[in-house]
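Milestone M4 deliverable, item 7.
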Amino acid sequence: MSFINQRTALLIRYAFIASLILSTTKVLFSQKNAAAITYKNGLKITIPDSSNQIKTKIIFNGRIHYDVSFIHQSEQLSEVLGSAHNGQEFRRIFIANTGSLFYGNLNYKVQLNFSGGKIGFRDIYIEPKLFQTKSLEAYLRAGQFKDPFRFENLLSSNNLSIIERSYLQSFAPLRNTGLMYHMNALNNRFAFQLAYLGNTDDTANEISDTDGFNITTRATYLITAKKENTIHVGISYSLRNRGKDGTYTFKVKPPVHLMPNYISVSLNNLDDVQLFNVETAWIRQRLMVMAEMITAKMSPSIDKNYYSFYGQVSYFLNRNSYHEYNNSLLGIKDIIGKKGAIEIAGRYSLANFGADVAGKSTMVQDFTLGGNFYFNEQFRLMLDYTVANLNTIGTSSGLNLRMQLTF
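Output delivered:
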């Protein structure tokens, strides 16, 4: 059986690669103007239109994130949760093909994850352009993609200043499957997203076989939009209907992926869960400040407050390196000088799921310090040290090292 599974996985990989080559060849030979092939953080093929404006592009890229973690837990914490061990893992192995076809009128993305020896979806969608004016663009995205909810979660894992995201990710899956309308206006200063999604996990598998659904809406605005001084603010709301199943689960772990879940709360007999999030980010040359807060409201109502927030600061020590605002759905991108860069970062994060009960804590908090050494825009070393506290139970610490390559 294992041989058959391995053979099937290999066939899927070869079929995926073959389809990419065939689709690329078809596009290249169907255009009148010559294509240009360049390489920067990935292989890019661009095809100009009759006026020599680049309107068709196809990009092949990938990433490897390899983590080594050293973990220590207090005896009290180990007695409640079990022991935690040092370890290493391929956190991510992504292969992706993205593009803009038919002279910019249709975007697409196919991204697969091979970590853990399995193949999983990490964004597969088609996105036709609905309309465009001088000050407004609108698109309809269909497939699997990131839920337009929480600024930190919309950032690419390649552009995180701290290795793992905060506790906000425990309130809802990072990705989901469905439809999303999104638009940018006022020279990208204002953005709006509205998504109708199913109840699937990050790999597009149904969490439960029910008729539940999710509706998420988000609006963001740039108070200042200068390259050297950008202030981003946003609000978002997500209605997560639980269908016939009626359950909703929160699982929380400190920002060291090999640590166990510190909190697991499962709620039953719910009609829906409403999530509210506020976000802000300030980028001023080499300095970046981020903060968000999320709250959850259940129906029928329960007498507990569920919320989480974080505040994060990062700073480049080199003058020619900085974070640059990209757009509402992608967040930021890294600009690294020719001689590389050193970045320092710090974050405080907290998650609370109501009053503690006997022998069980419902609040966790941590402080993380990080240092990143960028050899260039493609290769970096990241080192984080985290101290976490599970309220009334105990404390833990983790030293996390990542080698990160994009290609």
